[in-house]
Amino acid sequence: MRFLLAGLTAGLLLLVGCWDMRELEDLAFVTAVAVDRLPSGEVRLVVQAFNPRALAGGTQGAITPSASVPSKCYRNYEARGKTVFAAVRELALKVPKRPYFTQSRVLLFTEGAARRGVAEVLDFFERSVEIRKIIPVFVVRGDVLELLDVPNPHESCPAMRLEGLVREQSRTSFFPVVTFGEFLGMLVSEGQEAYCPVVRAERNPTQKLRPREPLAPAPEPAMEIKVGGTAVFRRDRLVGFLNERESRGLLWAKGKVGGGALVLSLEGDKEVTVDVLRSQTRIRPHLTPYGPKFTVEIREEGNVAEAACPLDLSKLEVVRQLEAAQAAAIKAEVEQALRRAKELKADIFGFGAALHRHYPQEWKKLKQKWSEEVFPYLEVEVKVDAKLRRTGLRSKSLLQEVESRRR
Amino acid sequence: MRMGKKLKDLLVQSKLKRRLAPAPPPLPQEDRKAEKKVWEPGELKQIPISSSLEQNLALVKRVMGGNADFEMREFVLGGGEKRAAIIFMANMVERSQLNRQILENLMFRIPKDQKVDLDFLRDRVITVAEVCEVRDFWEVFSHVTEGCAVLFVDGENRALGLDVRGYERRAIEEPVTESTVRGPRDGFVEDVEENIMLIRRRIKTPNLVMERVTVGRLTRSVVVLAYIKGLVNPALVEEVKKRIAQIDMDAVYGFRYVEEMIIDNPYTFFPQAICTERPDRVCGALTEGRVVILVDTSPFALIVPASLPMLLQTPEDYYHISGISTAIRWLRYLAFIFSVVGSPLYVAISNYHPDMIPARLLLSLAAAREGVPVPAALEAFMMEVAFELLREAGIRLPRQVGQAVSIVGALIIGEAAVRAGLVSPLMVIIVAATGIASFTVPSYELGVPMRLLRFPILFLAATLGLFGVVVGLLAILIHLAGLRSFGLPYLSPLAPLKFGELRDVLVRAPFWAMRTRPETSKRNWFRVSPWGRSQRPEEEHRRES
Amino acid sequence: MVREEGRISALQACGYQISIVLATAILFVPGIVAQKARSDGWLSLLLAFIFGLIVAVISSKLALRFPSQTVIQYAPRILGPFLGKIVGFIYVYYFFYVAYYVQRQFGELMTTAYMQETPIVVFIAILTLLSCYAIYQGLEVICRVNQIVLVIFIPAFFFLLALIAKDIRLDNFLPFLENGWGPPLVGALAPGAWMGEVAVILMLTPFVSDRRRVLRTSVTAVVVLFLCMLVVVVGAIGTMGAEVVARLLFPAFSLYRRIHFATIPILERQDAVFMMIWVAGMLFKLTTFFYAGLLALSQWLGLKTYRPLIFPTGALLAALSLMSWHNISDLVAFSAEVFPLSIDFVNLFLTGLLLLVAACRGLREVNGSPYADGEEVKGSAGAV
User: What start and end residues bound the annotated signal peptide (chain C) (predicted)?
Assistant: First the structure.
């Protein structure tokens, strides 16, 4: 019996092939996937695949091995097809390795693709095991090929650079971070429209055009990748954008601001800048005879980072004044964002979802006409409770002392 | 197996009967002539010692005559005319003792006109501690071949076996295979008597029992069973004795002969008895209620029953602060697991689940793999085989050359292979780390099966990825859980779970916290007296001050 | 070296009861519950918990009436030889039926999520072979390994869930009772059926050394299972939202794929670790059913040992698991609609019926059974 078992097992194992085995060097690790739609309706896929040879040995990976052009650590491929998967498989005609998507860092939609609706192209990405739900989603303004081929020695692979920018998002909070999973969740949930950050390739102002000298180090790159702003979807179609301040307004309302510079303009052209530490938000629906009304309660804490005006921060009333200014600034940002969302008739704030959670019956009545008739005229009250905690290494501002001495 | 043995017994007996059919053989007078006849033990047992010295010596000569190291000394007992003879193996007795305490006494220290018989000699004349009476020739030759001298006296149908054994022994040295930093430095030697001494010196209770059994038809090796009465489960002792009694083979040279004949499951790679050269480890096992088997000519003792957690403990654990021992123990457990799955995990992850590797590491991995001509699985297999080769070569060669092997192998070949692009540098690291992990397994006989099992798991990893690794590990786990060593489940106290005993497995609890004795000795429950805590040194000190 | 069936401790019996439910339940329950009850999924679990307790109590009471026999042996005594045999056969079939269902589920996840190109038969065959090996070694060994597997499985499971705890949003559990108590009740059906599988104690009681604790072990098992399922349902709905979870085939798997740490990227994408521990859990889910089925079958046929049946039955189950469902949609529909009801029928209805009849007829174990009550079991050490 024992031997029978052993024999059976051994036999089975010998019969087992290596169906799913793939050698590392036979994989093309895709780091970024960009989806575009051609006017004909065909899907155009641009993928960025890593080139490990560039890491293995200096110039080996260059197009011509003997040339002194440094090798790039990535290659971009384009493929077209009627559907996403067809395009993915068409890549095999050009890529000598198996495109392997599990390590992809970002998922990009071109503006055109997003305007046509993302649902039909998203199905593949949701169904596929290889695509992770934790990667961030972007809408690309401008040419995606340009974006994916911006050289930069700081993080030479553009996809990885995007990932790095996302990691540093809380330094400005000028764009939302939306993972693919969250994006999908927003697409399907009731009373919540989807949004995602916007990325574009910009001209790099630090580049100076001068004749290239032999042996001179590489010049500053001509282009720069910049993330900022929010793409707003209704259903699954892109309908418009929020600028950077409005994006932060949206994030305030979502309770997702983890940092950023908040500039408070005081009377007389004076500016104090606050370093936002953390924030919390609560959206509360109220039922009134005239329909639902919402309160957005924001609690925020910040430090004074810069005071470009003669202010005595050691005085309590000055701090209170600043706190009020802070609250006003936040409120302004939120209201600005809300105005823009109302214009676009896209409830990216999730007021509908909040109503659904708290008053499901009411929601059922309003569901059909929510985005057309209710949301654009929604009454929203923004209450901000802003706190200043610390003032950095000094209390009085430098300007104040300079002025007092002058006097 | 058992049937075969019985059959053999039957054969031997029938042969004996056929030989014994003609009555006691005539005793011809030629001497010192190599005899063609082969004397079987059973036959010798049948021949009693006769009262005629002549006859006895004649038979002795017939049996032992051809031996160059056999000595026979005939003499006359002092105080009369009675003849006597003493026989012994020349190189196995201590000559001075034989001369002074036996021959001198027998020849000169007997008062005149004394009626001399064997009892008198034993009681009054011979000043040797161990003396025993011998009645047949089987016993005579047993004693002689063991190194005792046998004294025949004319007119007596008995003889005296005198223990004057003396042969060269290796001095007690530091154990080679199990060294500790803080532990005692004495290790067992080949001589079983010395080993008994090493144990006795540590456990000074009359309840420590040493039972002596002889096994092996030709070698008649001494096997000593040691246990502590009152701690050991009597059923266990009975079982061990029964199994040892069933051993019937020509030669027993070392512990492995005994071990292989008495373990529960012959089809396994895993050791079911712990073999150790350290007396302190043996004593620890004795006080846990285990049985220790010492085999003459082997510098190792066997501890039964064994369990896997025990095999992963070292005596060192008990010579350090308990917290430190616990940490080191866990390091060892992890290394133990890593030694099986190290390189298979690498193969499985890189070939089947590259998504598990963080991006940057993955890229450098892929870069390292560029240009390696063989698949990762084969690469790992080659490296593992090379590693095993180096290890084996290092052990077999003399120590000075062995170092050269490791230098050539590890540094030169490894470096050159990486340079040449035959293997990726990471694979060298992984295989080396796996190898080192396997060396941290404290018992050598457990480290070897782990290294061997790595190969099938490597194969599984190459064919089925992490799923294969899990399947392999589960199969090993089921196998281990199915093993028993003398009735003790091999994985106890992990499975079946015995919470109380985990304190010496998951941690090395301080001695004052390990209050109860383990499962193996059920009867006397407390290891530390229940009020033991108050006797902790620092508290005593506090009470005094 | 004759291996007897052996004795298991009450703790091991409890482990057996946990394993018989755990592995598949945590994988599929969130999806089924979210589909039916949406954000009130956790309420469904509460209801299922009550259901599980009822089954646990009924089956333990029945088991304690005949502590030295299995249900196959005493069913004829309760219902008469003919009906009893039929009920016995239903039990036999039930165990095998779940066993091959489990095999298929296992194969489907492996081929969907990890190794798309490997034929499903490979996974099923390997798992079945391992299971046969464990069963060949006997109940004691199954329980021992099961203990170890659970000790690794449950903490690892909770650890992985702790990694996504930071993403749980309580908002996802609102609205509360949007459509009344109906949906949570419907949603409770499947997890309730799963928890009802602890009725396997009917097959185990004769081998438990401390039989008075049978009720306690069953209840403990149900509590543990409830906690595990609750945690995974709360985790899944809390992080992904009921709408997303309801669409997923393997919600727990998707959940682990969402572990996300921007600062510690090494913790991301480690769902293959989940697969590793899940294989172990699945092996024991299969083994527990397979063993119970083999034991039941051998007793139903009046055999002395089940050992000769292991391989033929294993092969049969593997074949059945491959042929019974055409595709994954078939399987999913089956596990949501047919499976819970059929299991409830056996675990609640049949067991309840047996207990009722036995109670009405006043049937109890008479003394003189092979294992008299209160018999002490010898320690394993040295008792060979």
Answer: none
Tokens of A367: 């569901």
* Smallest Cα distance from B363 to chain A, Å: 6
Ordered DSSP codes for C135-182 = HHH-HHHHHHHHHHHHHHHHHHHHHHHHHHGGG--GGGGPSTTTTTTH
Q: B458-469: per-residue pLDDT in tens?
A: 988 888 888 889
Average pLDDT for C113-131: 86
Q: Does residue B97 belong to any structural domain of this protein? A: yes
Of C112, C175, C259, the CB nearest to A356: C175
Q: Do B363 and A29 touch (CB under 8 A)?
A: yes
Does residue A127 have a pLDDT over 60?
yes
Of all helices (H) and strands (E), which one includes residue A303?
Answer: strand A291-307
Q: Which of A16, A102, A357 sits opposite C175 (nearest CB)?
A: A357
Q: List pLDDT tens digits, range C134-145.
A: 888 888 888 888
Matching residue, tokens 């899940």:
C278
Binding partners of B (≥3 Cβ pairs within 8 A): A, C
Q: To the nearest whole angstrom, how far is the Cα of C262 from the nearest Cα of chain A?
A: 6
Token pair for B503: 């304190």
CA distance C306 to chain A (A): 13
Q: Does the structure show a pLDDT above 60 at C376? A: no
pLDDT tens profile B431-472:
888 888 888 888 888 888 888 888 889 988 888 888 889 999
Interface test with B, best of A14, A21, A53, A130 (most B CBs within 10 A): A21
Q: Looking at domain C10-177+184-361, does it have CATH number 1.20.1740.10?
A: yes
Supply the range of the domain harboring residue B529. 510-544
Show me where the domains of chain C are located.
Answer: 10-177+184-361
Say whether the peptide bond before residue B496 is cis (omega within 30 degrees of 0).
Answer: yes
pLDDT of residue C380: 35
Q: Which residue reads 């089947």 in tokens?
A: B352
Q: Which residues of B touch A73 (CB under 8 A)?
A: 363
Residues B52 and B118 in one domain: yes
Q: Please tell me which of the candidates C269, C280, C380 has its beta carbon nearest to residue B487.
A: C380
What is the interface size between A and C, counted as CB pairs within 8 Å?
69
pLDDT-derived band at B199, boundaries 50, 70, 90: very high
Mean pLDDT of A194-214: 83
Helix axes C271-301, C139-164, angle to 10 degrees: 150
Residue in B with minimal Cα distance to C116: B352
**Same domain flag for B214 and B111:** no
Question: What are the two backbone dihedrals, phi and then psi, of residue A310, each rounded to the nearest 5 degrees?
Answer: -70, 95
In a domain, B326, yes or no: no
Contacts of C379 in chain B (CB under 8 A): 519, 522
Q: Are residues B527 and B449 in the same domain?
A: no
Domain boundaries, chain A: 245-407
CB contact under 8 A, A129 and C112: yes
CA distances from A185 to A130, A150, A236, C36, C99 (A): 19, 31, 12, 18, 35
- For residue B505, CA distances in Å to A54, B328, B329, B483, B509 come to 49, 12, 9, 19, 9
Q: Is B45 in the same domain as B113? A: yes
Residues B481 and B341 grouped into a single domain: yes
**Which tens digits make up the pLDDT trace of A353-377?**
888 888 888 888 888 888 888 888 8
pLDDT of residue B282: 92
The total domain count for chain B is 4
Q: Is the pLDDT of residue A187 over 90?
A: no
**Whether residues B348 and B480 fall in one domain:** yes
The CATH code belonging to domain A245-407 is 3.30.300.210
How confident is the model over C322-352, as pLDDT tens digits?
A: 888 888 888 888 887 788 888 888 888 888 8
